[in-house]
Amino acid sequence: MFQHLIVYLFAVSQLVSLTGAQDECPLQLNPQRVVVRYGGSVAVTCNTSVAHKGIGWEASERLVPMTRNQSLITWRVSELTEWDINPYCYINPNKGAQCQIELPVTVYKTPDSVSISTVIHTEPMKEGQQYELQCDVHGVAPVQYLTVKWYKNQTLLNQTTFSDTIETPVNKTVTLLIRPDRADDGAQYRCEAELDLGAEGPQPPPKINSTEPLNVEVYYKPRHSSSTETIIKDDKVMLDCTVKANPAPDYTWSSDHLNLNISSSVIKSSALSPGKYTCNATNTQGSDIKVFIVKSTGTRHTFWTVLIVFLLLVTLIVIILFCFFSSFLMKCCDINTLK
């Protein structure tokens, strides 16, 4: 039992010694991290300022054999085609044990394609209903640096990141739920795959958009801004029932003063009688009614006529009173003269 304890303590002391040696390893890498496109080239230097018995690079691709008479060596690969590569530089100093520093290498690949589609739906969308959009990203690596962004026209709607640590290319599918309204008719939806590989990666980060945006057509019912409108009849009256809707609406008019079936959205005439005119705009999504109330301008003529007559009467009364008082004063003057 005592012997086992001694062995355990010795192993722990060796591990602590090795860890401390690696923390103080007299090597410098330049750069300290590498981001390289799959199939691209890479070159990293490893140098030391201490006397040593040998320095070298260990790697599964293009290792650099240990050398004794150099203080700087370079690990160089002209075409890196290994996804999971972990090179490290090591040194055997004259004083102390061998130590090493690992080089973090990220091998990336932009997506082969990015596409957008609707899930189980091919016809025009209907206002207020929920739909699912799908974005497919093919052949991207490493996926932990991938962000999929959703846009409606130029507005960012949502974005998704991934925590997978897979280093080789993968396919990813992301979905987005939308509930379009009439303002979305004709809108463009697209998804974008962005690889943000940090400061050592390409700047700006590579962005691959969906090959073709998704143009959305939304069906919605007619809806007037107001349900009634009052119009004072003039020489020519225009009743405009035009309203936006998809599909385009059909129009029907009803009134006690109309003898013809009218399918136009506008009635323009000088022969419309005062009264109520009802317009019904209808399409496959629903209908909406607007009522026009036409009033005669005769009410204004009557007002002015009454006002003019009233003013004439007042003027006549003033003239009569003036004449009466003038005559009265003259008689008074004559009487005083005779006296």
TrEMBL record:
One GO location term (cellular component): membrane
Recorded superkingdom: Eukaryota
Keyword Membrane carried by entry: yes
Any Pfam family matching the protein: Ig_2
Gene3D superfamilies named among the record's database cross-references: Immunoglobulins
All copies of domain Ig-like, residue ranges: 111-209, 222-290
Molecular function per GO: integrin binding
Keyword Nucleus in record: no
A GO biological-process term: cell-cell adhesion
Protein's cellular compartments: Membrane
UniProt keyword terms in alphabetical order: Cell adhesion, Disulfide bond, Glycoprotein, Immunoglobulin domain, Membrane, Repeat, Signal, Transmembrane, Transmembrane helix
Signal sequence, start to end: 1-21
Topological relation to the membrane, as annotated: Single-pass type I membrane protein
Major place of residence: membrane
Transmembrane segments: 303-329
Similarity section: Belongs to the immunoglobulin superfamily. ICAM family.
PANTHER family found in the cross-reference section: INTERCELLULAR ADHESION MOLECULE, INTERCELLULAR ADHESION MOLECULE 5
Record's protein name: Hemicentin-1 isoform X4
Species in which this protein is naturally found: Carassius auratus
